[in-house]
Amino acid sequence: MSDFAQTGVICTLQRLNDVHLAPLDREWLPDRSARCPISLILPCHAPDLQQPALRHICEQLTGAQWLQRVVIPINGLPPSEQAAVRSQFAQQLPISHTLLFTDAPPLNDALALAAGRPKELLRPGKGLNVWAALGWLHAQRIGGIYALQDADVLSFNRPTLARLCFALAEEELQFDFAKMYYSRVTDRLYGRVSRLFLTPLLHSFVRVLGHHPLLDFLLGFRYPLAGECALRASLASSLPFHEGWSLEIGMLCEVFRRIEPARVCQVDGGTGYDHKHQPATGGLLGMCEQIANTLLQQLAIEGCNVDHTIRETLLRTLQRETAQAVKRSNALARLNGITSSPSQEIADALHFTNTLPTGPLPTPQPLPSWETVERMQPSALELLSKHIKI
Q1: Of 82, 76, 77, which is closest to residue 124 (Cα–Cα)?
Q2: 378-to-91, 119, 138, 239, 308 alpha-carbon distances in Å
Q3: Per-residue pLDDT reduced to its tens digit, 313-340
Q4: Which pairs from 293-296 meet CB under 8 Å and 24+ separation?
Q5: Residues 68, 74, 63, 388, Cα dihedral to 10°
Q6: Looking at domain 11-386, does it have CATH number 1.10.3660.10?
Q7: CA-CA distance, 224 to 215, in Å (whole number)?
Q8: How far is CA 124 from the centre of its chain?
Q9: What is the pLDDT of residues 90-103, one digit of tens each?
Q10: Buried b (16+ CB within 10 A) or exposed e, 70-100
Q11: How far is 256 from 250, CA to CA, in rounded Å?
Q12: What is the number of alpha carbons within 13 Å of residue 382 lying toward its C-beta?
């Protein structure tokens, strides 16, 4: 029996069959996108440019009749390599696209002006890249729907992205924001930060603080850390943006404040969604620390008491919740004949739990919404638009 359960405040749009994928991609969505244009943001780090995943994504996107343009913000690329990258995309992606080199002047100067910071304090990476792409779209007065797609997905297929966009393009459905979810499983379960840290942390907050609308909203998402989402241009322009690993969870918190949960959905992206994997003691620890800081900051904004006394209780609760998460993951793996290592997952969960901050919380300093930039620093938008070669 297919899963069509609706268990939270977020509408879940499961994938009940594959029969609809071809007509949705080739007929239904092209018809809707003629009235509501769709732009895709494909943020890249320099190492992504030579990976098989990006070449495969470009091949898939080439056949997207419903896609008006692709905006590709790139960081970490030396100026001497920009011409070669332009040529690469001209060959691999023969549809309308715009490259934004976010490290390079004068674009970097325009972003610093928009952010109200010295450019040395801009944090290069996906958050800044996505924010820059949204700024360029806003400056060009390009409305409609914006979709975000990670560039490191080896298993990417165009109809899955089309499903995500269709949830917004079909206006009768009345959604303004759609988040993709998918299972990260190959010969073992991945998604460790979600399984062994974020979900237990959210449950721990509920146990310690009680139910809160923001916590219930976040718990409604099956994969809140997924990088793939779609949102209306008007919503995108109103959102402050968080940098680093705080991007996804920070975006959901900002969406929560601006639209009703009834205008939000999550779309099933299928199985085997293959991102690059990282060791638990490497970048994942920094990810957990930033996620925890962001959640504590956002709950403080909502008026919750998250002082050091509460956090001591939260830590003890989190230790119990992560132990339960490991148990559940092991049961899921064994029942499906998948490799499982509970002892390793316990060790990973301990590393993640130890990132929970105990001292004073840093003051959140998100990048301003592009509506705010237009009001406070309109010259930044002019510079952003002026120096981009389409």
Answers
A1: 76
A2: 35, 18, 11, 17, 41
A3: 999 999 999 999 999 999 999 999 999 9
A4: 293/246, 293/357, 293/361, 293/362, 294/242, 294/246, 294/249, 294/250, 294/253, 294/364, 295/201, 295/202, 295/205, 295/249, 296/357, 296/361
A5: 40
A6: no
A7: 12
A8: 16
A9: 999 999 999 999 99
A10: bbbbbbbbeeeeeeebeebbeebbeeebbbb
A11: 10
A12: 5
Whole-number Å distance between alpha carbons of 135 and 387: 13
Burial class (CB in 10 A: 0-12, 13-18, 19+), 247: buried
pLDDT of residue 390: 41
- Residue 205, token pair as written in the block: 């907050």
Sequence ranges of the domains in the chain = 11-386
Residues of the chain with pLDDT under 70: 1-2, 272-281, 387-390
Residue 210: other Cβ atoms inside 10 A: 9
Quote the pLDDT of residue 274. 65
The tokens describing 79, both together, are 């100026």
